[in-house]
Amino acid sequence: MSTPPPVNPKRILRFLALQALLAAGAALAQSDERLPAPVARVLKAAGVPGSAVALLVQDVDARMPRASFNADRPMNPASVMKLVTTYAGLELLGPAYAWKTEAYASGPLRDGVLEGDLVLKGYGDPRLGYEQFWLLLRQLRAKGLREIRGDLVLDRSHFTAVAHDPARFDNEPLRPYNVGPDALLLNFKSVRLDFLPDAAAKSVAVGVEPAPAQFEVINLLKLAEGPCPGLWHEGLRMDLAHTAAAARLILTGSYPAACGEKSRHVAALDHPQYVAGVFRQLWGELGGRLAGGLREGGVPAGARLLARADSPSLAEVVREINKHSNNVMARQLYLTLGAEATGRPARAEDAEAAIRSWLGRKALPMPELVIENGAGLSRAERISADSLARLLAAAWASPVMPEFIASLPLAGVDGTMKKRANGSGVAGQAHVKSGYLDGVRALAGYVLDRRGKRVIVVFLANHPNAAATRAAQDALLACAWERSC
Question: Could you tell me the domains of the chain?
Answer without folding.
Answer: 33-96+314-482 (3.40.710.10), 100-161+272-310 (3.50.80.20), 191-266 (no CATH)
